[in-house]
Amino acid sequence: MDHIWSPWRYQYVSAIAQQPGCVFCRMLAEDDDEKNFIVHRGKLNFVVLNIFPYTSGHLMVVPYEHQGELGGLDQAAGSEMLELARRCERAITQEYRPDGFNVGFNLGKCAGAGVAEHLHLHVVPRWCGDANFVSVIGETRNLPEALETTFSRLRKHLH
Fold first, then answer.
1. Number of domains the chain is built from
2. Which of 20, 57, 65, 83 has the most neighbouring CB atoms within 10 Å?
3. What's the Cα-to-Cα distance from 110 to each of 69, 103, 113, rounded to whole Å?
4. How many CB atoms lie within 10 A of CB 91?
5. How many Å separate Cα 60 from the centre of its chain?
């Protein structure tokens, strides 16, 4: 297997792993939306950039309540979560013009949840051909835009 090196990511990944507790709860407690890439705060959920995105514009809708199971989410938070996902879809479409979307949950570690203890809904823009050889064979993602730029582009639609 070939390796493509991105040593700049190690500092960030290792810092996140060393911090105790839930990453989403920490973001909320810090109350620094720009630093944490929180693009919108709703009544019961917030919208945040995925800091390890599949594609540019990858957002997550996260309930304020620390809840790991979809069945434990109350009706109001679930309704707002879906409405915010719809707003995310519109914002991403206006800024990036993707060919489609993946929208969904990864529930539990074995299902691919990076943060299994705190429910979150992914809104991922997709383009025809974006699953190219680099992602499929090289197990590497090529993102053409810095997170700070993505944050600025999407926040104006959601804030």
1. 1
2. 57
3. 14, 18, 7
4. 23
5. 4
In a domain, 14, yes or no: no
Q: How far apart are the first and last CA of the chain?
A: 43
> Burial, 48: exposed, middle or buried (Cβ in 10 Å; 0-12, 13-18, 19+)?
buried
Given 58, 118, 120, 122, which residue is catalytic? 120
* 9-46 per-position pLDDT tens digit: 555 455 555 667 899 999 999 989 999 999 999 999 99
**Residue 120 among the catalytic residues:** yes
Residues pairing with 47 in the sheet: 40, 61
Question: What is the edge-to-edge ordering of all strands in the sheet holding 45-49?
Answer: 38-41, 45-49, 59-63, 121-126, 100-104
Residues ≥6 apart with Cβ < 8 Å to 14: none
Residue with tokens 């040593």: 7
pTM of the shown model: 0.77
Range of the domain at 134: 22-158
